[in-house]
Design a protein that fits this description.
The chain is of the alpha/beta class. The protein is about 20% helix and about 35% strand. Residues about 315-330 have low confidence and may be disordered. Strands 6-7-9-16-14 form a 5-stranded mixed barrel. A 4-stranded antiparallel beta sheet has the order 13-12-10-15, with no helix packed on it. It has 6 helices and 16 strands.
């Protein structure tokens, strides 16, 4: 299907038939600007239960500023339609789509979906943004993950303006690896929790996408200057803090908290014994992810702590929630 300049169209990308013979499609929107320019894909719900990106894309498509678009926006709000329908991270074959790229035309169900996404979406793009949340019962501080050693990718990450930029090496089979192998700059945005809408994470994601679109010349500058957040942190390493005992987690450290090595993150108590276990930070840094489920087993991941450096803003000696108090203005 051809979408002419100045038009937008809803596209249904065929995936396969279910065993009921019902056709299953991946929904997409193509917005073709009136002027030539980059071709950006924005995707969400590669993990079917990570639904915040679906709302981010819905709001993006409603922005009046898209009438001034240069280039082409390819928006895919639900990639893993199987998982989305079933409130599930995976596909029916229990494979992780984000470990199955670039896929295969003759492979598993998951591999075939990955191949179709690469051939029908990524093959037509010059830039990419993929939207995620924390997994089930885990919440992430809004953050961008990317290969920040690449100058262009770092520029786009700064333009996104999330509280934290995480330098992350690619993982085998991930969409980011497959896209980078094609020489396409790409960001992964993480914010919020699976199966939940968290307004600050959604607002930050929407503002970040528009910031990237302006940085690559797809959108004009805003009518009002974008209010940049007071501090953005760059993280090059991180570590999950796991429970050493089973029990009930009390007083967990909030997302965005600056912590020092040895500082208390939470307390695990036993419902049957009068005994508490202190959970402390193994390193100094920023809490960028945490569990929201107070019932924990030994070995469960509780807190994700990143070692960070200030990239701009006030003095980094800051003891409190970072980043979210300075949301960028959503103009246009």
């Amino acid at each position: 299907m051809q979408v002419r300049a100045g038009e937008r169209a809803a596209i249904r990308i065929p995936v396969m038939r279910r065993y009921t013979h019902a056709e299953l499609f991946v929904p997409a929107w193509v917005v073709h600007g009136t002027q030539p320019g980059p071709r950006l894909f924005v995707s969400a719900a590669i993990h079917g239960d990570e639904i915040s990106g679906v709302e981010i894309i819905r709001r993006l498509l409603e922005r009046p500023v898209l009438s001034k678009l240069a280039g082409t926006l390819i928006a895919v709000p639900v990639v893993n339609v199987y998982g989305f329908l079933n409130h599930d991270r995976y596909l029916p074959d229990r494979r992780d789509l984000n470990r199955s790229f670039p896929g295969s035309r003759q492979g598993s169900l998951t591999a075939r979906l990955a191949h179709r996404f690469m051939s029908e979406v990524v093959a037509h793009a010059t830039h990419g943004i993929d939207l995620h949340t924390g997994s089930l019962h885990r919440e992430n501080l809004p953050q961008v993950r990317a290969c920040l050693d690449d100058a262009e990718t770092l520029r786009l990450a700064r333009a996104f303006g999330a509280p934290v930029m995480v330098h992350a090496d690619v993982r085998d089979g991930s969409l980011r690896q497959a896209v980078l192998d094609r020489g396409i700059p790409m960001l992964v945005y993480e914010g919020g929790e699976a199966l939940r809408f968290e307004e600050k994470a959604i607002s930050a994601g929407l503002a970040g996408i528009k910031g990237v679109m302006r940085a690559i010349g797809m959108l004009p500058p805003p009518r009002k200057p974008r209010r940049m957040r007071e501090r953005i942190f760059l993280a090059r390493s991180s570590r999950w803090v796991r429970a050493s005992e089973s029990g009930i987690l009390h007083h967990p450290a909030p997302l965005g908290a600056r912590v020092r090595r040895g500082e208390l993150l939470g307390v695990i108590s036993s419902p049957l014994e009068r005994r508490d276990h202190r959970v402390t930070a193994p390193l100094s840094g920023l809490v960028i992810g945490r569990t929201n489920l107070p019932l924990v087993h030994e070995g469960d991941a509780l807190f994700h702590v990143a070692t960070v450096a200030r990239t701009h803003g006030p003095d980094p000696e800051y003891a409190g929630p970072a980043g979210l108090e300075s949301q960028p203005a959503d103009v246009g």
